[in-house]
Amino acid sequence: MTMTLDEPGTIWCMPVRKNFAEPSVNEILQNNDYTSSCGVSACTVTMQNLQAKTEYDVWCYTEDDNVYPQRPNGRKFSSADKTTLSTLDTTPPILTIVSAESPIKTDIRIKVKMEEPGTVWCNSFPTSTAYGAITFNAVIAGNFKSFVGFPLLSPNSPTNTNVEVVVTGLLEQTQYDTYCTAQDASMLPSVNQMTDATTVATQAAVGAIITLDETPPQFTQLGAQSIDENTIKVTFKCNEACRAYCRVTRSDSGETSLSINRILKANYLADQTGATAATIQLSRLENDATLNLLERGTLYDAYCWIKDEAVQHSCHAQAPSAFCSTYARSNYQAQTYVDTAFGGTPPATYNTPVGGKMLHVRTPDNTAPVIIFVEAESTEETSITVTLQLDEPGTAYCQAYATPQTANAALYTALTTGVVYRNTVSNWNNIYRNFDVKVSLLTMETKYYVYCAAEDAWICSQGFLLFFLVCVAVVCRCLFYFCFSYFLIYSGCFAANRRAAMYFEKRSLRGTGDQ
């Protein structure tokens, strides 16, 4: 520091950090930075061992050269006299990368700190593109910046304290290379910028960040079909790796929606990745072995909910590179998606589904109805009445023959075509209840072989089962005499599952009732 005095004397000076406490005279003298023999000609006080790039308030004390017996006269700088100076700054700021992450799909946020006031810029470039050479100007071109040591600007932080630079406007779920650079605020003698080589080196410390996936997955294929009497299989694919949860409810339950919580409680799920579809097999309303299986020949509505396996990427600088990790940030479809019909018709699979609801998926009924024989009698000279029960809704057919018949598909056709004698159990409320089938146009006092068959309403696709319960009877006013039954299995498929019927024989003397 260069000064002049109005008379010969000595100058002592002491620098303190800007805005720090004012030193006393003794502190200035003890600092021992001084110059003697000063006067009207300029003299210089040199203060050493100071911190670079730092502003100081310089306080001085002057004393004239009076000698004994005179006493020296001294004077200390007042607040108006102190001078604020900065040590020379000829080096770029030291920029430290702390961490980086992508908390939302459009942003990468980088935490940095600097040891001196200045400005920090960061910029991100898609990894898979040829984004050209990285220079100071290329990074600051995005104008994503923060300030250090400027309290009146925002965002700002003190020196050596973390400040966040937000790079925004990025593509979702895309990997980026991110670079940061900085310049200080010095004017001694000029602003100092980080070199291009140092700027390029910041990318390794930031790490490769993939922007967050915030979009819920969607079905790209969906369908439901029965695979046996008690199981419905859901087939699905998504537009990204996903996990699906499904549940069924009876179509006649009156439910028009299944909450996501109930679907999750069912605990039927599967993961799907890549080009191969995944499947979920539902055999109960919930995945609980203590519950009943799905019922055969029943319409069910299937509801499915999906979520993806999205993760949030973050990296922490660990010289010379970065340690990167992820944690789950799944996206999932809303209740409205679950309650939206998928657009197809079961059992077909649909390739452009718009929701997760599949209505009217029927479980097959491959089991023929069970014919339960109750009694048979001839109450008229020209008819035989057979009393039966069925274990499910269906239709029973009966016919009388003068000779034994072969129990086969041709017999079933004969029973159900031409002159037909039948009765129907129309709903589940009437199962295991007696009903009659009256076979007419018979000849009095004639021995007949009466055959009955039953079918349910299910259109099968695998084959059918014939159950023949055959009885021999004589047309008269008498009761059942004897009967026996046996099963026959036939390949092929007709209109329904079928059981074919009974053979009974009656013998009586006209008018006596003897058997």
Could you please describe the fold and organization of this structure?
It is a single chain. By secondary structure, this protein is mainly beta. It folds into four domains: about 1-85; about 95-210, Immunoglobulin-like, CATH 2.60.40; about 220-305 and about 335-360, Immunoglobulin-like; about 370-505, Immunoglobulin-like (Sandwich), CATH 2.60.40. It is built from six helices and 35 strands. Strands 27, 28, 30, 31, 33, 34 and 35 form a seven-stranded antiparallel sheet that branches. A hairpin with a 6-residue loop joins strand 8 (about 95-100) and strand 9 (about 110-115). The model is unreliable at about 460-470, about 475-495 and about 500-515 (pLDDT under 50).
User: Which CATH C-level class of the largest domain is it?
Assistant: Mainly Beta
| Structural domain count | 4
CATH architecture of the largest domain: Sandwich
**Uncertain ranges:** 460-471, 476-496, 500-515
What would you call the structural class?
Answer: mainly beta
Shape: rod-shaped
Short synopsis of the structure:
This protein has 515 residues and is mostly beta strands. The protein is built from 6 helices and 35 strands.
Tell me the layout of helices and strands:
Elements: E1 2-3, E2 9-17, H1 25-31, E3 34-38, E4 43-44, E5 55-64, E6 74-76, E7 83-86, E8 95-101, E9 108-114, E10 118-126, H2 136-140, E11 145-148, E12 156-157, E13 163-167, E14 175-184, H3 196-206, E15 209-210, E16 219-228, E17 231-238, E18 242-250, H4 260-266, E19 268-272, E20 278-282, E21 299-308, E22 311-318, E23 321-328, H5 335-338, E24 357-362, E25 371-380, E26 383-390, E27 394-401, H6 409-416, E28 421-425, E29 435-439, E30 447-455, E31 464-474, E32 478-479, E33 482-490, E34 498-500, E35 503-505
Parallel strand pairs: 11-12
Antiparallel strand pairs: 1-4, 2-3, 2-5, 5-6, 5-7, 8-9, 8-22, 9-13, 10-11, 10-14, 14-15, 16-17, 17-20, 18-19, 18-21, 21-24, 22-23, 25-26, 25-32, 26-29, 27-28, 27-30, 30-31, 30-34, 31-33, 33-35
